[in-house]
Specification:
The chain has helices at 18-21, 43-57, 61-68, 77-88, 93-102, 111-124, 129-138, 147-159, 165-178, 186-198, 203-212, 221-233, 241-252, 255-267, 272-281, 290-303, 309-313, 322-338, 346-351, 354-362, 372-381, and strands at 7-8, 11-12. With 384 residues, the protein is mostly helical. The protein has a two-stranded antiparallel ribbon. The longest helix has 17 residues, at 322-338. Belongs to the mTERF family.
Length: 384
Amino acid sequence: MRKISVHHGRITLIIVSPTQRLGFLQHAPFSSSISPQSGSVDAKGASFACSYLINELGFDKEKALSASRLVRFKTPDKPDSVRQFLKAHGFADSQISYMVKRFPQILSCNPKKTLLPKLDFFQSAGISQEEITDLFTRAPLLFRLNVRDKLVPSFNYLKGMFPSNSETVIAMKRISLNAGNLRLNFKMLEHNTQLLRDAGVPQSNIDKLWGHSPRVLAVDNDKFLEIVEGVKAMGFNPKKVKFLLAVKAFTALSKDTWLKKIEAYNKCGFSEVEILEAFVKCPWCMMVSTEKIKALVDFLVNKMGFEKSVFLKRPLLFSYSLEKRVMPRCLVYQILVAKGLMKSGLGSLLDVSEKRFLKDYIECHKGEASELLKVYKEKRALVQ
């Protein structure tokens, strides 16, 4: 059996043994530095806050009880003033409700002292009103951050990486959602970014990573170096996007999670060697849930007659939605086979884009199988 070992620091990569190979997955590689202050409130205050959240903001009872422990008000004056302030600054009722669900403490903030400086900063930076409301709706914890010490340097750092304000705001939004709400050590992020450059990753790919998955970089520098070197040792080309997908997988998965997914694939009949070979072809196959792994293999192998080997040749199959893509297209496949109109394999039908699928497998058969489009749309509509 083929065995590849690479030693660097604490990492040992052994293809036939994921447990030993993944030395850098000993602990979950990322945890947010934000932890809401839970401070206790008296029973009367909590009871009023709970009722307020249910009656005024549409919370269900369970969420209202949980959120009421994080706020401090016994009358509607404070939360009403916050909501009125936000409405006056362009936030819709639905956006305010969404923000409160993500950050209940906003209802206890002083609008002029705490909220206004943040909105003013982004407005002075040339950000549109629509972008500002969307940013804070999706990442309300930004209201907790100091303008001078955190928002200004964070915004300026990102602005240096992206050509427009809109792209900078998008990056800030994604970092806020995925990487500790800007409570980050930007020197650490910059160091990890340089590690990627040194490894040969093109700047264009790094920019995409910052724009879409900045959380990947929020890893201790030494651990990140181990991951990058480990991915290179597995044979990934740093110039290809798959290299960063592999890095992303290893920063996102703890050792326990990795092993659970290995176990799921094992139960579906795949060996560890086969799993890792599939990972090299498509790192995303280790990012899907164990439930999806089992359901997809069960449907395609047991119900559609797929050979298991097809998954090894096309591991991208694991990234497809079972309900929205695989099952509706398989229904079309079955109809075409029954009518003797299927000239290619099922794998090809699943791989093509939606536009190409409609053209090559439905529109071209209007004469012989006019029901295809209706059947396909009905099947997809069931999961919308």
